[in-house]
Amino acid sequence: MPMPKHLEKRVKPMKSRTLHVDYLARVEGEGGIHVRIKGNQVKEVKFSIFEPPRFFEAFLRGRPFSDAPDITARICGICPVAYQMSSVHAMERAFGIQINEQIRALRRLLYCGEWIESHVLHAFLLHAPDFLGYQDAIQMAKDHAAVVQMVLKLKKIGNDIVTLVGGREIHPINVRVGGFYKVPSKKEITSLIDTLEWARDAAIQTVKFCMKLSYPDFERDYEYVALRHDHEYPMNEGRLVSNKGLNIDIAEYENHFLEEHVSHSNALHSILKERGAYFVGPLARFNLNFDKLTSTVKELAKTAGVAKGTNNPFKSILVRSLETVYACEEALKICKAYEEPDLPAVEVPVRAGVGYGCTEAPRGILYHRYRLDEKGMILDAKIVPPTAQNQKTIEQDLREFIPPRLRLSQEKLLWQCEQAVRNYDPCISCATHLVSLEFCSETNKES
Amino acid sequence: MLPSTLLVGIGNTLRSDDAIGLWVAERIAEKNIPTLVVKTLQGEGTRLLDLWENFGRVFLIDAVSAGAKAGTCFFLTVEQISSFRRQCAPSSHLYSIFDAIELARVLKKLPSELIFCGVQVKSVSYGNSISEEVLAGARDVVSFLLKELGGSVKDGKSL
Q1: Quick check: A66 and A53 in contact, CB under 8 A?
Q2: Distances (CA, A) of A327 to A202, A274, A314, A336, B50
Q3: Global pTM?
């Protein structure tokens, strides 16, 4: 992995060192890393979330079920569709509603738009500079203007899909329990086809770009958790599965997963009750659902050397670009087959109950659970974002990643630690919607 | 006559004073100026490059955290932004507005004229009301913009 010259200085191992990043750059929200090293051992790793906590779960209490998609969408400006999808599916499950195939396809198209814009933004404007030795995408754009222009255009196409189907690209306003408020015409949807064909070809170019990157040699034995569907690469539906035996209905989530407070973070850490840390996101989806990808994506994956999966989290950038190709192809398929539904939404018979929703946000599974009274008022809510689920894994990665690299200079090691965190495309704003906690910070010291 | 000027209010209605850019945009939109298009943005900066694509003159309004007294207004040209941003707190957005402006400059995608109007926040904690001091500053921004939309800006200034 090429590094800027000024960061290549090597140092002798010290008796103890502290690595501290006050503000992680190129991630959404505010988070930091604190690592304490003694001799050759990593004594302490903290991935700190110190953005003001969000109280959405409490805020939702006493509000009508129909408010949940619009309120929860405001948890995140990057993945609002994911929040809307998890919430509407949860409410529909509580009410015993089945949406029709056309509404289902439109929701999938909407999610394709979000995957494209989120993946492209993270992979090429936030993460790729790490691999090429640039401080940021601005510096990268000076030497790779054509690539940056292409990814911006690709990202725009994702945004345009979300705008068309969702009514607005940020915090879509067209999503409701039962379907949509208004559906696009066949003409509007088919107008996307030419641009999606360009997008698919551009996305393939991004995969080839990623194939040329140099990846740190780092792998771990992870437990990947993702949705798995009988017929398709998962977005809105499926069972929760892992590579270590988990296979449950999403309604059983809280029987298997636990959230715990940690002193250094405002966000709760999620663990599997029996086995601890786990890994959600593109790598998990890819490793658990490779057979459901299109032949184009499978061939590209084979050329890239990841057709049998990968346990190297740095290759998440490659997997994001493969998923972007998939999203473009899936969006094309939906657009070509689109028939405007007779009605934008199905009937919503309100009743008391508990509803569960779990969908694949760009960063991984996003779980919602709501308890409703007979009038559909929310009695309580639980929301578990993907970044909260990856926190422990991020810390464990750093714990194992650092020791073989202790001879690196402080600056270079810090850079690589930040890059390691960015493997997970953490959305820190999402992960801090829960009860506030104390966190501790330390000043930098070396001895 | 097609609109030639774009005004983008940037912010988040659930983060207290961070909503100020949206508040200013709403006040300006109410005036129905025929040569002006008003848009809003949550804060993902790369979208700006799409929004301003066919406009020669662009105003951006956003909250800033620059260590000044709450409600202080800043009016900045592109050239002034790079030194100004050094006094600001790191952006918490996935792609900051200032980074997007700089990226556009590198890619030669800046509009002919771009003015950034910033209002110093008091609080960006969770909530949906704006501080009085920040609102007072925002009213000054509205006055400034209404005056400028009838002319052109010579250089940036702060009040």
Answers
A1: no
A2: 12, 34, 21, 14, 21
A3: 0.89
Identify the three-state secondary structure at position A427.
strand
ipTM over 0.90: no
Rounded to 5 degrees, φ, ψ at A11 are: -125, 160
Task: Give the chain A residue whose CA is nearest to the CA of B11.
Answer: A77
Place of tokens 């993907």: A386
Q: At CB < 8 Å, which residues of chain B contact A?
A: 12-14, 41-44, 46-47, 49-50, 90, 92-95, 99, 102-103, 106-107, 124-126
**Alpha carbons within 13 A on the beta-carbon side of A412:** 17
Confirm or reject contact between A149 and chain B (CB < 8 A). Answer: yes
Burial class (CB in 10 A: 0-12, 13-18, 19+), A247: exposed
Among candidates A334, A236, A233, A239, which has minimal Cα distance to A289?
A233
**CA neighbor of A299 nearest in space, from A329, A278, A331:** A329
- pLDDT tens digits, one per residue of A92-109: 999 999 999 999 999 999
* Nearest alpha-carbon partner for A299 in A322, A333, A332, A324: A322
User: How do residues A311-340 score in pLDDT, each as one tens digit?
Assistant: 999 999 999 999 999 999 999 999 999 999
